[in-house]
Structures are given as structure tokens and as C-alpha cells.
UniProtKB/TrEMBL annotation:
Enzyme Commission (EC) number: 2.7.11.1
Phosphoprotein in keyword set: yes
Parts of the chain that traverse the membrane: none
Record's subcellular location: Membrane
Keyword vocabulary terms for this entry: ATP-binding, Glycoprotein, Kinase, Membrane, Nucleotide-binding, Phosphoprotein, Receptor, Repeat, Serine/threonine-protein kinase, Signal, Transferase, Transmembrane, Transmembrane helix
The protein's name: Non-specific serine/threonine protein kinase
Positions with biased composition (Polar residues): 361-392
Record has Glycoprotein as a keyword: yes
Span list, region Disordered: 361-399
Organism in which the protein naturally occurs: Salvia divinorum (Maria pastora)
Membrane disposition: Single-pass membrane protein
InterPro entries: GNK2, GNK2_sf, Kinase-like_dom_sf, Prot_kinase_dom, Ser/Thr_kinase_AS
Length: 399
């Protein structure tokens, strides 16, 4: 929610003006739908109003008619009192019958609160000539994405929850790599693409850059680099080669970000401008604890677990893909503290402009290619599909 004004409005409940939008399609069973919806909105209103001075928001679902879930979200500006927030949302709900009665979805917005409900269905085709449609049913993930928690000091995560997330992500990646009918390489794993449900279980999202492999395929090549700088392995940025080890590298970066609470692409500590460099330097010098988020150092979490996870993260970001573990090995290493870990080699380093390899490992032609890719002017001329920020850029390929 965003609001600005030339008059003071903090601490005042405003319900006017009010805007409404609604889904043009009607529900199949309006009476049952309205009954379930009313119960859901009343429950969420109480939860939102009970929120503290930093956040008054609640989201949830109820099983509706015809085995369809109804998703809803309610939010007040946090400067309101509990009673004011409740009254604002009651007022918003009272506008539903006159404007959104029988509709599958509706959104009500006022200056002090907002309300929304829908059936989370995405139509793949606007028109269906034979009466059949393809629909995507989405799960509502109430806690948004991981980056909102590890990089926002106002919503800190304790070690227990971070450890749970670190353990959950590789199980999802392992499914993509080995248990799915087709091997799937995600190619854009990063905090904003890890969604969290009400129990803080991680869900891997945004498969716009994913590539499918046959069971016998181990590596792919491309001349069009897609993804986000800082999470791409060097062999992908330099040669366009990607494999399951590409996702392993991205996971290693994620682990170091979760432990440190620092963004990979926006890090600086003294003369070090790279999180991987900082983690490697401190691990090698025996001061790895200084990489850990200060909020965790003073908490009740196990420092030995944190350092072990950092060790695993460093194994995943090694420069040579062959030296990185598989995701199956990562799952085993995280599930048992008794398994000894290999000594990691020096990781691939990045500068603020992109990947910076060790000169001894690459010839002059490769270095020239790297410098060309990192040039802003060149990137603009070639319409580079990589992203310097947290936004994914999707490159569509026929499946």
C-alpha cells in the first residue's frame, strides 16, 4: 500500500474515497460461496486487526463449493488501532453485496485498508471454441518470498526457521533434478523465487527460465544468457553451459545469503565487495563466525550448525562445476551432522559488474569475451537477457 498527501493522515482512519474492482465471471454456487466467503473474511479481519504496530495483514483460504478454494487477503495501515482496523474492514466488506455479489473475485480499496478475495485460477486461453479450457490452479503462499525476511531487518528470522528453509530448498531442487519425469534445470534460483507458506516451508517458484532435460542428458548450451547476475555459475556466464550443477551453485549463494542476511549483489565489507569472497576469506582464516548475521550470533541457534551450512554453501559455489556436490549429496550432508565434509576450493568470484575469473584459468580470448559481456553499452546493444537486479527476465523456449 502506498499513500502520500499534503495533509497529516497518520493515525486517522479514512474509508473514503473507496475503489472497487471485480471479476466479471459469476460463481457457480453463489449462496454457498457467499457463506464460505463471509466466514473467511470475518476470521481474517480479526487476525489483521490483531497485528502489531508494524504490520496489520492476514491472508488465508477456505474450501468453497465444487472443491474450489477461496483465497482472501485483508490489510490495514499499521498506524490504526485494533478497533479502527476492524471497523475499516467491516466497512469494506459491507460494499461487497452491492458491487461484487455473486462474483468470483473482488477487490475493495480505501485509504486506510484493503480487502481482496478470488478463486486462484489462471486461464491459459481467453477463448475456448470447444468448451474446454486449460487452467492453472495456484496455491496461496501467505508469507511471500524469502528475500522479504532475510534482507528486511524489521522481519528477522531466527536460526531454527532459517535452518528449516536451508533444508527444504535442496529437497525441492532434488525433485526437479532426479524425481521428476523430466529433469528440470531451474536456472534462476534466488531469494525472490523462494516462496514461504504459513509454516515457513520453502516453495520454488518462477520457472520461466527453466529448461527440460531428458533422463540421459547432463548438460545444455545456449548463446542467450538468462537469469540474475550473482547467482549464475561461471561456466554458464562464460560458455553458456548449464547443468544440474548450475542450480547447485545458485543454492550455495542462497545459503550464504540466508546465513549472513546480506544480499549477494549488494555487499561490501572493508575492501571486499563480494559475499562469496568474504565468506571464503573468513572460512579460510578461521573467523567464519563473523560472516553470520549479527542477529543470529546473539540468539539461541547452534553456531556449529551455522558454520556447517556455510561450509556446505562454499562447497556448492566452487568455481569448477565438477567439484560441486550434487543436490542429492547436499540433502544428505544437511540431514546428518556425522557425515564429514570435503574441503572446498576457492569459489567463483563476482565483482559488481559481473563474473571476474582468476586470470590463470582462462585465456585472453575468454577474458575479452567476459569484459564484453560486462560492458553496459554492449549489453544494451545485444539485448542481454540477464538481470542485474532481483527481477527475472523470462526467455521463452518451446517445450
Amino acid at each position: 500500500m502506498l499513500r502520500y498527501s499534503n495533509a497529516t493522515f497518520y493515525g486517522n482512519m479514512d474509508t473514503s474515497p473507496m475503489w472497487l474492482w471485480w471479476n466479471p465471471y459469476n460463481t457457480t454456487y453463489p449462496d454457498q460461496f457467499e457463506e464460505v466467503l463471509s466466514r473467511l473474511l470475518d476470521r481474517l479481519r480479526e487476525q489483521a486487526a490483531d497485528g502489531g504496530s508494524l504490520r496489520k495483514v492476514a491472508a488465508g483460504t477456505e474450501s468453497g463449493p465444487a472443491f474450489q478454494d477461496i483465497f482472501a487477503l485483508q490489510q490495514c495501515t499499521p498506524d490504526l488501532t485494533k478497533e479502527e482496523c476492524s471497523n475499516c474492514l467491516i466497512n469494506a466488506k459491507s460494499n461487497i453485496p452491492a458491487n461484487c455479489d455473486g462474483k468470483r473475485g473482488c477487490r475493495v480499496i480505501s485509504p486506510s485498508c484493503t480487502l481482496r478475495f478470488e478463486i486462484a485460477v489462471k486461464r491459459l486461453s481467453k477463448d475456448s471454441g470447444q468448451g474446454k479450457e486449460k487452467l492453472l490452479i495456484y496455491e496461496l503462499v501467505q508469507n511471500a518470498s524469502l528475500d522479504h525476511f532475510i534482507f528486511d531487518k524489521r522481519c528477522p528470522l531466527d536460526w531454527e526457521r532459517r535452518y528449516k528453509i536451508i533444508g527444504g530448498i535442496p529437497r525441492g531442487i532434488l525433485y526437479l533434478h532426479e524425481d521428476s519425469r523430466l529433469k528440470i534445470i531451474h536456472r534462476d534460483l534466488k531469494p525472490s523465487n523462494i516462496l514461504l507458506d504459513t509454516e515457513m516451508n520453502p516453495k520454488i517458484a518462477d520457472f520461466g527460465t527453466a529448461r527440460l532435460f531428458g533422463q540421459d542428458e547432463t548438460q545444455g548450451n545456449t548463446s542467450r544468457i538468462v537469469g540474475t547476475y550473482g547467482y549464475m555459475p561461471p561456466e554458464y556466464m562464460i560458455h553458456g553451459q548449464f547443468s544440474i550443477k548450475s542450480d547447485v551453485f545458485s543454492f550455495g549463494v542462497l545459503v550464504l545469503e540466508i546465513i549472513s542476511g546480506c544480499k549477494r549483489n549488494n555487499f561490501r565489507s572493508g575492501d571486499v565487495e563480494d559475499l562469496l569472497s568474504f565468506a571464503w576469506k573468513n572460512w579460510r582464516e578461521g573467523t567464519a563466525a563473523s560472516v553470520v548475521d549479527p542477529g543470529l550470533r546473539s540468539g539461541s541457534g547452534s553456531m556449529s550448525e551455522m558454520l556447517r551450512c556455510m561450509h556446505i554453501g562454499l562447497l556448492c559455489v566452487q568455481e569448477k562445476a565438477a567439484e560441486r556436490p550434487t543436490m542429492a549429496s547436499v540433502v544428505i550432508m544437511l540431514s546428518s551432522a556425522s557425515i564429514s565434509l570435503a574441503v572446498p576450493s576457492e569459489p567463483a568470484f563476482y565483482s559488481s559488474g559481473g563474473y571476474t575469473p582468476r586470470r590463470s584459468n582462462y585465456n585472453s580470448r575468454e577474458l575479452e569475451s567476459i569484459n564484453t559481456r560486462q560492458s553496459p553499452a554492449s549489453a544494451a546493444d545485444q539485448s542481454d537477457h540477464s538481470s542485474n537486479n532481483e527481477v527475472s527476465i523470462t526467455d521463452l523456449h518451446p517445450r
